[in-house]
Amino acid sequence: MGHGANVQPGQVVGISSSPGKEELSRAIAEAAYGRGAKYVDVVYFDPYVKHSRLLHADTDTLGWVPPWIGQRMLDLGELRAANISLSGPAAPGLMDDIDPLRAGKDRLPQVPEGLQVIHQGLINWTVGPGPTPEWAQRVYPHLDRAAAYDRLWEELGHVLRLDEPDPVAAWKKRSADLIDTADRLTELRLDSLHFRGSGTDLTVGLLPGSLWIAAAMTTADGLPFAPNLPSEEIFTTPDPVRTEGVVRATRPLDVAGTVISGLQARFDGGRITDISAESGAEILAGRCAVDDGASRLGEVALVDASGRIGPLGTVFYDTLLDENAASHIAVGAAYPDAVDEADREHMNRSGIHIDFMIGAPEVVVTGITREGTEIPVLVDGIWQI
Structure pTM? Predict the structure, then answer.
């Protein structure tokens, strides 16, 4: 845990989990206490209860969030706590029978206060996968339940580098390589990125102060932590008013239990103006309408082919894993760490942050300088810088 959330002696530790992940949650709690945690608070969000709400509650009430849920995150921030979240769908497909317009009104378990304390640098946090047999069967439908669960653990062990003699050392080496690449990209001071291929022709404008970062962050108090395990990306904060073109997602996207497949979107003047999909388009459209910044980009991330997730060819139906398999963009809130302080007033702000994957070996990424010079960045998944 010293590499991920980096729990410190005397810290309060929050754990965000879901049913089916109790054993792993308890193991994390024990490890946190072993590092000297003052108190570990485990919260389980039950998607089946949410399903009941979406089926029966009055439509006008679906956007209401009990105040204590957001207050918990604010309290964790005030206490300078650590927070560890377990990703991975606990009940894949559970929301398939729900009207997408109704489902889009209830964003729980995500709350704006969570993004608030993260962007203020008040907590050291990490997100990692929490396997369940139900999730495993979604990923490997051709295997029986037990075999699928074993396979999920096996592949997660590989992408998390747990098959290395010293996993922490392996992560530190990978992180150092990513940070070096991010620094080199920052030095280019690109004006924009152009993605072309696989149905995508998209230009993402960057801010003069956009900084490429990777693998590691620090709290406002200077405590280092790794926000994602695994992490294979480098990312930055784009200019929220300068995204133009069309984009096609290269992987399915799970949003609060609803899978969005075949996603296509158009950007004009930095804002999503059209969304279509084979299924689930209404869910993303609903999220993009929650506030003024929800339809603009808050992140653009690049992933090369040398990571461990993409080469597996596995679609995990989990944003944490799938976003680290391929380059991606995110609508909603930007990360203040990924832009110079002078440009933070221009970054996107929103109560949401939703990533979707747009990268593939056939998608070429080109950087464009402020003088108009084109610089190859990613070709066939290989860094060109």
Answer: 0.87
- In DSSP terms, 303 is beta-bridged to 233
Question: Are 299 and 331 a contacting pair, CB within 8 Å?
Answer: no
Please list the alpha-helical segments (H only) found in the chain.
Answer: 22-34, 47-56, 67-78, 100-103, 112-119, 133-139, 145-159, 167-188, 281-287, 319-323
Taking alpha carbons only, the member of 44, 59, 127 closest to residue 319 is: 127
Do strands 82-87 and 192-197 pair parallel, antiparallel, or not at all (unpaired)? unpaired
The SS3 call for residue 385 is coil
- Tokens standing for residue 283: 């869910």
Residues 28-78 have pLDDT tens digits of 999 999 999 999 999 999 999 999 999 999 999 999 999 999 999 999 999
The CA angle 182-187-190, to the nearest 5 degrees, is 95
Residue extents of the structural domains in the chain: 188-214+230-383
| Dist. CA 46–CA 44, nearest whole Å | 6
Burial label, 255 (beta-carbon count in 10 A; 0-12, 13-18, 19+): buried
Contact in structure between 69 and 111 (CB atoms under 8 Å): yes
| Amino acid sitting at position 374 | E
| DSSP helix/strand/coil, 380 | coil
Cα separation, 251 vs 315, in Å, equals 7
The CA–CA distances, whole Å, from 204 to 190, 276, 366 equal 11, 20, 11
Render pLDDT for 267-306 as a digit per residue (tens, 0 to 9): 999 999 999 999 888 888 888 888 999 999 999 999 999 9
- Summarised one tens digit per residue, pLDDT across range 142-178 is 999 999 999 999 999 999 999 999 999 999 999 999 9
CB atoms within 10 A of CB 366: 18
d(CA 284, CA 114): 20
285 Cβ contact list (under 8 Å, min separation 6): 104, 275
Per the CB < 8 A criterion, the answer to whether 11 and 37 are in contact is yes
